[in-house]
Amino acid sequence: MSPPSHIAPRGQQIVILGATGSIGASTLEVIARHPDRYAVFALTAHRNVERLAQLCLRHAPRYAVLADEAAAKQLREKLQATQCPTEVLGGTRALCEVAAASEADAVMAAIVGAAGLAPTLAAVRTGKKVLLANKEALVMSGHIFMDAVAASGACLLPIDSEHNAIFQSLPASYRRDPDAAGVRRILLTGSGGPFRNASSERLAAATPDEACAHPVWSMGRKISVDSATLMNKGLEVIEAHWLFGVPANRIEVLIHPQSIVHSMVDYVDGSVVAQLGNPDMRVPIAHALAWPERIESGVSAPEFFSLAALSFERPALERFPCLGLAYQALEAGGAAPAVLNAANEEAVRAFLERRIGFCHIAEIITATLECSGKLDANVLAAVLHADARAREIAREEILKRSVP
Ligand code: NAD
Ligand code: MG
Question: b/e per residue, 260-289, with b = 16+ CB within 10 A?
């Protein structure tokens, strides 16, 4: 017997944490191309009522969650006036509940920043498929996060284009037996951001809008600023360390302005395996959603005859100290990556609000790392303590540099 027409056939039930953001939008685009395979189980956001209401009307999820309780109340009232069947929940606990719901098959973790840690971990602990875009969660709590993946048997698939490329360039047996794979180095590529060729004077005067005008990728404002400072690449070095178990000294960053080669694996026999594609997040999203199968993402392959060149440069560490700071934090271990991340989040927010200049971001992170001393990160409470302490220090450092 076929189901009544108002009941959608059951595809894989997907939770999108951070549905109103850039990754959220790309995920919904890919899902919408495959209504036979995927259904939206829950959509979450911070407090954008209008956008989440539109998405609910379009995708009719079982649940919609706004982290902000007052915004959730508004969304509930708005949807009550429509035929939309979505149940609206509010608060961070509800974010974790939908992320861990037994009816959900996969969770796209695409909240920006430390706010994504609790719901992403909640999803990981249930052992389901987790598509990881929220790199900050892994950077903050690498050990705890990867231990939780191992304990629950969660299927963790990287969405960050570089890590997705590395995942695709490694043998399927890599997780089981990394030593046998013969990996010499991970070659992490990055576009270099909007200020790749900018002088130090130009960097000092950079505005938020200039920093967010990325030459290749269209992304949320926080990650756009991270790309401009190269902190994004630094966070990605730490992310690669945890995802693939490779030490910092075997992860090398290559600036590749065309963003066609999304990263490479250099093997002991001299082979280098890369994944190529147009710079569009729908590619890694489709890859991870369907893995180990492949589905259409809506993105075509690069037009090779129109590409003038594929070039690679060393990163300019003197002009972009954030990349070096991330390597230092990874080497220092303990809570240093959580401190780095927290200081960066605070500094980027202050820069976006025009309270500090672009070059102050690296200064504030340096000062916060120095003042924080050695902190542990072996339990979640310790990570959250380090995060909170680092934010206090960073805010003081921001005040010292604030434009009157
Ligand atoms: P975005 O700013 O466009 O969207 C962020 C989403 O997180 C929004 O839905 C927002 O409502 C939600 N959010 C923000 N603060 C929250 C809070 N306190 N509680 C609950 N939800 C909150 O960001 P984005 O560009 O989509 O990036 C999302 C994540 O994916 C980031 O961690 C980023 O580093 C990573 N990532 C993004 C890209 C990209 O191309 N955009 C590429 C690789 C990795
Ligand atoms: Mg990336």
Answer: bbbbbbbbeeeeebbbebbbbbbbbbbbbb
Residue at a domain's end among 135, 158, 181: 158
CA neighbor of 226 nearest in space, from 353, 348, 364: 348
Quick: pLDDT tens for 12-55. 999 999 999 999 999 999 999 999 999 999 999 999 999 999 99
**217 Cβ inside 6 Å of ligand 1:** yes
**Centre of ligand 1 from the C-alpha of residue 21, in Å:** 5
pLDDT band at residue 211, thresholds of 50, 70 and 90? very high
For residue 245, what are the domain limits?
A: 167-279+313-400
Ligand nearest to the CA of 132: 1
Ligand 2: centre distance to CA 168 (Å): 15
My answer on whether 18 and 129 are in the same domain is: yes
- The pTM for the full model equals 0.96
Q: Is 115 in the pocket of ligand 1 (CB under 6 A)?
A: yes
Closest atom of ligand 1 to 232 CA is 34
Query: Contact 80/59 with Cβ under 8 angstroms?
Result: no
281 CB within 6 A, ligand 1 = yes
Residue from 22, 51, 225 whose mutation best tests the ligand 1 pocket (most atoms within 8 A of CB): 22
HSE-CB of 68 using CA atoms within 13 angstroms: 11
17 and 141 assigned to the same domain:
yes
Name the domain count of the chain: 2
> Which one, of 354, 314, 322, lies nearest residue 341 by Cα?
322
Least confident stretch, 5-9, 140-144, 353-357: 5-9
The whole-angstrom separation of Cα 363 and Cα 376 is 23
Provide the 3-class DSSP secondary structure of residue 21: coil
Least confident range of 153-167, 215-229, 287-301: 215-229
Question: Do 263 and 188 form a contact (C-beta atoms < 8 A)?
Answer: yes
Q: Band the pLDDT of 373: cuts 50, 70, 90.
A: confident
Find the radius of gyration of the CA atoms of the chain. Answer: 21
- Closest residue by Cα to atom 9, ligand 1, is 18
